Amino acid sequence: MPFVVDVCVPFRARQGLLSPVRAAAGQQRLTPGADVEGVLRAGVGFDDGDLTDRGWFFDTDALSARLSAWADVLGDRPWTERFPFRPTFELVARHLYEELAPVVPGLAFVELEDRTYGSRTRYLPAF
User: Fold this and answer.
1) Does residue 106 contact residue 46 with C-beta atoms inside 8 Å?
2) For residue range 36-75, what is the model confidence (pLDDT) as tens digits?
3) CB contact at 8 A, 37 and 18
């Protein structure tokens, strides 16, 4: 897989989980419902043989539209109200991968970046 094209969209979200680790370390606490600035990113992998006559494999605009729809979902209410599981970045990234994989050929990963607290969580499926 010599090519991986990343598409990303920004979002604002309210995760809704407390951070006892940050509190114990005397760091800024995450308060339930506090906004974080994030980026939803997905990568599509493909080989030279997958390129069309026009020199591309897939429509990045179509993937951007799908990610934008998910970004709206991620920002519409606290994640603790949105998802039926404990909404850590890890579990949400895996959930989004599982939702996108059937409709995005070559989906290589889904990543959630938390720009407010400086972390990235990338879900890579086991092959």
Assistant:
1) yes
2) 899 999 999 999 999 999 998 999 999 999 999 999 999 9
3) no
